[in-house]
Amino acid sequence: MLKYTGYIRKIRYYSESSHYIVALLEVEEDQELLTMNGYMSNFNDYDKYAFYGDFEIHPKYGQQFKLDHYEIVLSTDEEEIIKYLSSPLFKGIGPTQAKYIVDALGENALSLIKEDKHHLDLVKGMTVAKRELIYEVLTSNDYDQEVTQFFMGHGISLRHIGIIQETYKEKTLEILQNHPYQLVEDIDGIGFKTADELALKTGGTLDNPDRLKAGVIYSIKQSCFSSGSMYVFYEEIKKAFSVNFDEEDLKKIKPFYFQSGLNYEKMGGMDKLLMKIYAFMLKKTEGESEAYKMIRHSYDISSKELIIPLTEYIRSNG
């Protein structure tokens, strides 16, 4: 894997939803601007980055540097530090104040400030407000970097990192570490396989009840969405489930058949007539199928008689 250190100089394309970026980089290792593509969030033109990845040949745009991951670099070049601290990121800190900081703290000024903001008390003209501002800006990306390191440390792609952070904010690490399958429910575009990969790479086990539960729910939803149905038969669940699980996993799932249907007693006259016509057409075309039986009879789903089997099932499998 290659490493380049430098700055983002021009954005050619950026997607707010996916955080996919195509940008031109000014790097120390090459005199020419480098075209990079990948996934980044919370970036700017002033921070210095270490970019990790490899080159690829794009069929239309030619050679590009495909970003694998990145991290913010604290410069130790005094001129770069002065330019950085006097950038728009640090409102009210101009070149003169930035030079005072470098004169007092030297080439390790940025790391010293992050280590202890009171190092700035040694700087000429420093106020409490300026000190707090500088420290806040320097540490504002620490959590993002922690999340990124979590992803990279477990071999997880940065493709979804932006949307995950946008969804969970400061709870991102807690969700990733303790409730990874929640991503399937909360984030459009993240399916069971992505959440399962994350969970297994962060210490999850194949027999985790949360894993099986998430897989079943996801399989049911996928079956319903693909067919447009409001219910799904067990055989169809097995078929959808087998895409993500093997036969051993399937054996761990104990099916429960919950009796349900339409409550004709609470329907209006026209609705009853329409459902009778539909039932007649179903019987004529499909015979006495399961779907026909489901809508032919009336059920009161609030009835205790229907709830009792469900509660017994939950107790025995809880």
One letter per element, helices H and strands E, the order comes to: EEEEEHHHHHHHHHHHHHHH
Strand content: 15-25%
For the report, how would you describe the main beta sheet?
5 strands, mixed, barrel
Q: Specify the number of helices.
A: 15
| Derived structural class | alpha+beta
Helix content, binned percent: 40-55%
Biggest sheet, strands in spatial order? 1-2-3-5-4
Outline: elongated
* Poorly predicted spans: none
> How would you state the average pLDDT, rounded?
83
Distance from first to last alpha carbon = 47 Å
Number of beta strands = 5
Which radius of gyration do the C-alpha atoms yield?
29 Å
Structure description:
The chain is an alpha+beta fold. It is about 45% helix and about 15% strand. It has helices at about 80-85, 95-105, 110-115, 130-140, 140-155, 160-170, 170-180, 180-185, 190-200, 210-225, 235-240, 245-250, 270-285, 290-295, 305-315; strands at about 1-15, 20-25, 35-40, 50-60, 60-75. The protein has a five-stranded mixed barrel. A hairpin with a 6-residue loop joins strand 2 (about 20-25) and strand 3 (about 35-40). Helix 1 (about 80-85) packs across helix 2 and helix 13 runs antiparallel to helix 14. It is elongated, with a radius of gyration of 29 Å. It starts with a strand and ends with a helix.
Draw up the topology in text.
Layout: E1 2-14, E2 20-27, E3 34-39, E4 48-58, E5 62-73, H1 78-85, H2 95-105, H3 109-115, H4 128-139, H5 142-153, H6 161-168, H7 172-178, H8 182-186, H9 192-201, H10 209-227, H11 234-241, H12 247-251, H13 269-286, H14 290-296, H15 304-317
